[in-house]
Amino acid sequence: MESNQVESQIEHKILLCLKEGDMQAFSLVYNFYWDGLYNFALRIMKEEYLAQDVIHDVFTELWARHNRLDIHSSLKDYLFICTKNRCFKLLGKLRRLNEVEEQLMLDISNDHDELLYKELSDQLDKLIARLPNKTRAIFIMSREDDLSYKQIAKKMNLSIKSVEYHISKVLNKLRKAL
User: Fold this and answer.
1) Phi-psi region for residue 160, left (φ > 0), alpha (ψ -120 to 50) or beta?
2) How much is the pTM?
3) N- or C-end of the chain: fewer Cβ atoms within 10 A?
């Protein structure tokens, strides 16, 4: 038997076990593909923590859907396509978040009318003051202390996704209010 046929048969058996909820099959897939998927995601995302988050999401989704898997290509191809799609989806979200943030800053900086600036500043201060303590602290560290999401996450013992969530929540509130 050719090695491609043997690999195909092994992969088919692993997929069947995975569909039945076999955690060992999942662990086998995870351990076998993690490094390659991570390196692939890192080339796209350019940040280690983002690449790790993507791979975590891919494997979480794989396990969540294990009993409904309908893979017509190889498992390897399926996982790489899922990783690529997840990377592009996250990049799109991050780009939109940055655009909103830039637009908010641009709107404020373009308005030279001191009265309007004071009014906006007061409104912003009030909105920030009404934020939950943790969210307010994260926002202040990001905008006033100029810390990266990674630095904030480490300082507050949170995941980076958690920091992104809090910043996103604040920016959405600010956008709606302003």
Assistant:
1) alpha
2) 0.56
3) N
Neighbours of 152 (CB within 10 A): 23
Q: What angle do CA 104, 101, 121 make, to 5 degrees?
A: 40
Percent of the chain predicted with pLDDT > 90: 35
Does the pLDDT of residue 103 top 80, yes or no? no
Give the span between the Cα atoms of 128 and 137, in whole angstroms.
Answer: 10
Number of C-beta neighbours around residue 20 at 10 A: 10
Q: In this structure, are residues 58 and 37 in contact, taking their beta carbons and an 8 Å threshold?
A: yes
Domain 3-91 fold is: Rna Polymerase Sigma Factor; Chain: A (1.10.1740)
Q: Where are the domains of the chain?
A: 3-91, 111-177
